[in-house]
Structures are given as C-alpha cells and as structure tokens.
User: Which sequence fits this backbone?
C-alpha cells in the first residue's frame, strides 16, 4: 500500500513537472524566404538551425519554428500567417520577407501593406516582432532600390519594432561567403548572418520574457 501511494506521488510530481515545462516554453517563429530556409544547403547548416543551437544554451525554454519557404513573397507569407499564429502562438517573430517581391518588380506599396498586416496580426496576438530588412542589386534602379530599403525602416518606426536593416552585412559583397547565384549565403556565410541577427534578437527576447 505504501509503495502504491509513493508511486502515485512520484507520477503526480512528474506530470506536474511536464505541465510546468510546457507552460513555461515559449516559441520563436521565423517567417522568411530562401534566405532563412537554408536554400541549397543542408537544413542544419542554415542560420535558423544555428540559432536553435545557440538558444538551446542561452534560452533553453524557447522552441524555434522555421516557417520560411524558398521563393516566398509577402503575399504568400500573409496568406499563411494567421494559421501559423494560431498553430504556434509565438512570443517572438522574426519577419524576413520582401526580397522576392522586389526581385520580381512588384509594387512596393503592396509589399508594405502585406508586411504591415503581418505586423498588426502579430502584435494583436501578443508577439514581439524583429523586422529584418534587405537590399537588392542596384540594376533595379536607384529609386526602386532606395524605396525598397527604406520601406522596412518606415514600418519599424510606424509600429515601434526591433529592426535589423540588412541581415547580409559583411556577407553579400564577399564572394567567398556567397553561393554562385550571388544572392544566397553559403555554409560559411550562415554563421555571420546569425551574428548579424543576434544583437537585435536577444534584447527583444530578454525584454519580453
């Protein structure tokens, strides 16, 4: 009888620990395109997987979900976003979309509206957003490239977001760190991309834990 009661207490304790662990776990959702989807690389070599490893030491309670899709546009991301919020209930979101809109010459006012809708949905769901900006080649025209680069800053200011202007800093112009297409970082470039992101992400995490 004593053994039975003892085992019952142990099982109850284990269940409570599991419930506590689940309750304390938080989710970081990465919403991006091929730059975040480890394009043409093994998944474990991409910066998001490297981020998972980094956070497993510094913030082990955080579960990282990578919802990035190669070729994704802001319209495609927006169409998936509400369901992802419902499914994962993230505390933080890294929003890295828009490059494919620009590379395809889409109207930037629509890109802006799509990103703003995602930001609004994220904030309504209680998630903190890190907005990641990007740049496109100058052959798209100075006016268009400047407008594209600045739209992220404008959105960040409008919604008071954490904002990383360019995730490929010190990578994009270094051929040894880029794939042959000149658009995507190779395996050696991925850790540098992560180091560009962490100074903006970690304060956001620590401020909203």
Assistant:
């Amino acid at each position: 009888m004593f053994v039975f009661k003892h085992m019952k207490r142990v099982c109850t304790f284990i269940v409570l620990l599991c419930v506590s662990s689940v309750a304390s776990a938080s989710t970081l959702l990465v919403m991006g395109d091929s730059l975040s989807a480890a394009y043409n690389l093994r998944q474990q070599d991409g910066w998001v997987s490297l981020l998972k490893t980094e956070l497993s030491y510094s913030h082990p309670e955080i579960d990282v979900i990578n919802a990035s899709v190669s070729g994704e546009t802001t319209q495609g991301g927006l169409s998936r976003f509400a369901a992802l919020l419902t499914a994962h209930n993230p505390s933080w979101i890294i929003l890295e979309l828009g490059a494919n809109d620009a590379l395809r010459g889409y109207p930037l006012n629509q890109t802006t509206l799509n990103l703003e809708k995602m930001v609004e949905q994220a904030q309504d769901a209680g998630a903190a957003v890190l907005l990641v900006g990007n740049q496109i080649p100058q052959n798209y025209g100075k006016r268009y490239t400047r407008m594209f680069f600045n739209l992220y800053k404008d959105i960040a200011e409008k919604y008071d977001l954490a904002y990383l202007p360019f995730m490929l800093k010190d990578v994009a112009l270094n051929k040894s760190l880029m794939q042959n297409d000149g658009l995507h970082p190779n395996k050696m470039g991925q850790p540098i991309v992560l180091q560009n992101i962490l100074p903006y992400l970690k304060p956001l995490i620590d401020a909203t834990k």
Remarks:
- Residues 10-24 have pLDDT under 50 and may be disordered.
- The two ends are 44 Å apart (CA to CA).
- Residues 25 and 61 are 5 Å apart (CA to CA).
- The helical segments are 2-24, 47-58, 74-88, 99-103, 108-124, 142-159, 190-207.
